[in-house]
Amino acid sequence: MRITLVLISLFSFFIGLAQSDALLLKAEQLDTEDIREESATIFNQKIISASRSLQELSDFPFTIYVITKQEIEEKGYNTLVDALKWIPGIRVSQPGSGFEGETFTMRGLHGNTYAKILINGMPIRPYPTRGMPIGAQLPIREAERIEVIFGPVAALYGSDAAAGVINIITRQSERPLYTQANISIGANGYSSIHALFGGKLGRGNKIFKYNIYGSTTSFDTRNIFQDTAYLYNPDNYDIDQHYLESPNYRSNGVGSILPSLNETPHLSRLGGVDFSFQNFSLSAQRMYRRDHSAIGLNPAAISYNNPNNFIAETIDNV
């Protein structure tokens, strides 16, 4: 009888310890105060795009999102669409198409066409093009922040800002010399190199600020060939089978109507400079993007067989 009482007492004691440990675990969990503190930090961010003067984010009636350099570094954003796809109201397509590269919509409007994309407040889309082609040729890794403003801002930026404005603010330093470099490698021949060199010299009202940056990103192919029996079956697009009469069409085997699918390489390059001295400033960028021309198009119209079929553009902005 005594042994039974001792065992019951020990069992009750250990149950009490287990319950006590469970109560201690609850005290270590995060609560709403932690979320509020982080949100307050972001909300006090100063932006320049909404009024072309530096003001608090809370002063504007627009829907505005700020993507900080910490988020860019932690999540490894490499293209503008990488960063935009996490914002509510934005839908993206990666890889998009060969003509426009990666594409996105802002509240239903085609962002490549109707959103104004800026680097340090200066528009970069050439006027002859219908939309801004997007790859890894924009200074995302070199950005201090990316300001995203929803809604028409035509009064400030023109009629091509019907969907909103996206302003990429490159990193500046108060030090005499500042350097930053990022190197990434991965599968399918992926490699990405980003470098930034800048600083500030002088005193008083004779201060010279400089910023030089560049990047190159390339890979051999994209993993886009999914559901090949349906998406890449030309019969689903051309019921008359005119593509079989084309000398440029290549099937994936004798007697097969499915196209031959090959590598879809990508290459992006960027070079840019920013200089300022007193009331004088100079900003210049050269951006290059190259994608396979068949991406996003009917396989009966353009061949996926040759990886050397590409569309490319060079954009110089000064």
Overall description:
The chain is of the alpha+beta class and 318 residues long. The chain has one domain: TonB-dependent receptor, plug domain (Ferric Hydroxamate Uptake Protein, Chain A, domain 1, Beta Complex). The protein contains seven helices and 16 strands. The relative contact order is 0.12. About 6% of the residues have low confidence.
- Provide the CATH topology: Ferric Hydroxamate Uptake Protein, Chain A, domain 1
Mean pLDDT: 83
Derived structural class: alpha+beta
Number of domains: 1
- Proportion of beta-strand residues: 35-45%
The CATH architecture name reads Beta Complex
Shape: elongated
Determine the CATH superfamily.
TonB-dependent receptor, plug domain
Assembly state: single chain
Order of helices and strands: HHEEEHHEEEHEEEHEEEEHEEE
Radius of gyration: 27 Å
- Total beta-strand segments: 16
CATH class: Mainly Beta
Major β-sheet profile:
6 strands, antiparallel
State the separation between the terminal residues, measured CA to CA.
Answer: 94 Å
Which strand order do you get reading across the main beta sheet? Answer: 11-12-13-14-15-16
Number of helices: 7
